[in-house]
Design brief:
By secondary structure, the chain is of the alpha+beta class. 18% of the residues lie in helices and 29% in strands. The protein has 3 helices and 15 strands. It has helices at residues 9-33, 89-97, 204-211; strands at 53-54, 60-66, 72-74, 100-101, 113-117, 120-126, 132-138, 157-161, 165-168, 175-177, 182-185, 199-202, 214-216, 220-224, 227-234. The strands form 2 sheets. A 9-stranded mixed β-sheet has the order 9-8-7-12-11-10-15-14-13. Strands 1, 2, 3, 4, 5 and 6 form a 6-stranded mixed β-sheet that branches. It is globular.
Length: 237
């Protein structure tokens, strides 16, 4: 966009540089939103462990991993995809309700979260956030046949995570990073983890679905239920 007539050369350079940076940001976000693999890839842990090992207090230890789609696996599982992920909703709720920061002296650098279960200690590391929002569905359970996000009517929606956990969806609370990842405030059930997890990632397929309803310009706007909702964009740290 040309600078106003009479602007000083330095002002023109600064203005043009700003518009170029905005174009780069929009291209980056658009490209990232079209990809479901915009997060980090799994890498082996440096911890030398054996699933079910006994620690010095005779407590069994297990090690888990959560990817950017919210799938929970045993950390050393060779294949990490939908078929090898834990899918039992009762187990997932049981596991995540006990989740907290790993404030023990065991494996805390590699596995920053822990879910104690009786005499067992379940250590967890993650691709991004330890809990991920995986679905966005109408609160009444009536999912549109064509598209779950067909939100032309003003019905309330809920974000789903873990097994059966939900939180009311307010689109203005979404946050996007410059690489296209979408986040939403942590669900109230995890309020004890606000310091270590103030936001929770939206799974890649869900982020892509919402991204198709966004426009990128001087501001990022989500078209939601017939209204334009401005979405905050932050630069990755």
């Amino acid at each position: 966009k040309p600078a106003a007539l009479g602007a000083e050369p330095l002002q023109m350079l600064a203005l043009n540089a700003w518009y170029r940076s905005q174009r780069r940001l929009r291209r980056c976000i658009s490209k990232a939103m079209q990809s479901q693999s915009c997060c980090y890839a799994w890498v082996p842990s440096s911890v030398n462990y054996k699933q079910g090992q006994l620690n010095d207090k005779k407590r069994r230890e297990y090690f888990y991993y959560v990817d950017h789609n919210g799938y929970l696996y045993l950390d050393d599982a060779r294949m990490k995809n939908f078929t090898s992920a834990y899918k039992d909703k009762e187990f997932l709720d049981f596991f995540y309700k006990r989740l907290r920061s790993n404030d023990t002296t065991s494996h805390s650098n590699e596995f920053p979260f822990i879910s104690p279960c009786g005499r067992e200690l379940n250590y967890l590391r993650c691709d991004d956030t330890p809990v991920v929002y995986t679905q966005l569905l109408p609160s009444n359970g009536q999912v549109p046949d064509s598209d779950p996000l067909d939100c032309t009517s003003a019905m309330p929606y809920e974000l789903h995570c873990a097994g059966n956990m939900t939180v009311d969806f307010e689109p203005e609370l979404l946050t996007m990073t410059s690489t296209g990842r979408l986040y939403y405030p942590t669900a109230p059930v995890f309020s004890h983890m606000q310091e270590s997890m103030p936001l929770m990632l939206l799974a890649s397929p869900l982020a892509v679905g919402l991204g198709r309803r966004m426009r990128f310009g001087a501001v990022t706007v989500l078209d939601w239920q017939g209204e334009e909702v401005e979405i905050a964009v932050t630069m990755d740290q």
